[in-house]
Specification:
- One of its GO terms (biological process) is base-excision repair.
- One of its GO terms (molecular function) is damaged DNA binding.
- It comes from Cryobacterium frigoriphilum.
- The chain is of the alpha+beta class.
- The chain folds into two domains: about 5-165, N-terminal domain of MutM-like DNA repair proteins (Alpha-Beta Barrel), CATH 3.20.190.10; about 165-305, Orthogonal Bundle (Helicase, Ruva Protein, domain 3), CATH 1.10.8.50.
- It has nine helices and eleven strands.
- It has a five-stranded antiparallel beta sheet. Strands 2-3-4-9 form a four-stranded antiparallel beta sheet, with helices on both faces.
- Helix 1 (about 5-15) crosses helix 8 and helix 5 (about 175-185) crosses helix 8.
Length: about 300
């Protein structure tokens, strides 16, 4: 599932390429035809990311809410302006580029590899390919959305209701008040910290990768109740999430190992297997103590952790 850093990067793409533009909105797939008709011909006035959700504001008070879920992704084409940080690094899994942000699209990548080079002129916009739920088209850029969990038109009051249900996002609000809101919720809950970090009403943007990596970095047992954690421990978790989220936004990669330099850093940026401490390393020796990494299920998602370092 695309995590918080990806959604912030998508919002930046829209801020740079669509905000201020009047757009044609359609639903080639047909499943969003009614919503597309309400937005068609309007001007996009703002783009916001909160955790794993993105909100596009249109004139006349209408909003488009998108939650990518497990399979959602945006694909951009046309005269794309650089809206992402210069530090961005493309990885070998094709999950980070100017043209596609979200869940990997291996079928599309294979299709692109098999396309034959011709002298035919490039047509803009190209016809939609696959199950495109929403197409947003300006004079110069097109954005196609595939596979979202949620895609709906909201009014301002409905947007406020949704946002109030979301936990704090340190990229939007790094204040002590936001930190304390996160801390107070965690420390009064008997729920295991491994579940709390995935609860978007507790904190926004953390998914399966960041959950596992943050807990290892903190040397925390995932089953520890939130209310058993000390104040400084929860503050440190918040600070680490802010730190890792910012790295993810700037580079496009969920880099969770520190102090890598030179070829080792370059290799980690390009290959996921070298980027993490425990994620997807079940059965392999811990990079710190050598104990085999454990895989179990928590909150209906796979959890990776070291039973020695996180005892």
């Amino acid at each position: 599932m695309p995590e918080g850093h990806s959604v912030h990067r998508i919002a930046r793409q829209f801020q740079r390429n669509f905000v201020g533009s009047r757009v044609a909105v359609s639903s080639p797939q047909g499943r969003f035809a009614e919503g597309a008709a309400r937005l068609d011909g309007r001007v996009i006035t703002a783009a916001h990311a909160v955790g794993k959700q993105m909100f596009l504001e249109f004139d006349d008070g209408l909003w488009l809410r998108i939650h990518l879920g497990l399979y959602g992704a945006w694909e951009f084409a046309g005269d794309i302006l650089m809206g992402l940080p210069e530090a961005s690094v493309l990885d070998s899994d094709g999950e980070n580029s100017l043209r596609s942000i979200g869940a990997p699209r291996r079928a599309r990548l294979r299709m692109s590899e098999e396309e034959k080079v011709t002298d035919a002129p490039v047509v803009f916009p190209a016809p939609p390919v696959g199950q495109v739920r929403v197409r947003l088209l300006s004079d110069t850029v097109v954005a196609d959305l595939r596979g979202p969990t949620a895609c709906e038109v909201l009014d301002p009051q409905q947007v406020e209701t949704v946002m109030l249900r979301l936990g704090p996002d340190p990229e939007l609000d790094g204040s002590e008040a936001a930190r304390d809101r996160f801390t107070s919720v965690v420390r009064r809950k008997p729920t295991p910290i491994g579940r709390l970090l995935m609860d978007q009403s507790v904190v926004s943007g953390i998914g399966n990768v960041y959950r596992a990596e943050m807990l290892f970095r903190a040397r925390l047992n995932p089953h520890t109740p939130g209310k058993a954690l000390g104040l400084s421990t929860v503050h440190a978790l918040w600070a680490d999430w802010a730190y890792l989220l910012h790295i993810g936004i700037e580079t496009g990669q969920m880099m969770t190992r520190d102090n890598l330099t030179g070829p080792e850093l370059a290799r980690a940026m390009k290959n996921r297997v070298d980027r993490h401490w425990v994620y997807k390393r079940e059965g392999l020796p811990c990079r710190v103590c050598g104990t085999h990494i454990v895989l179990e299920e928590m909150a209906a998602r796979k959890l990776y952790w070291c039973p020695r370092c996180q005892s």
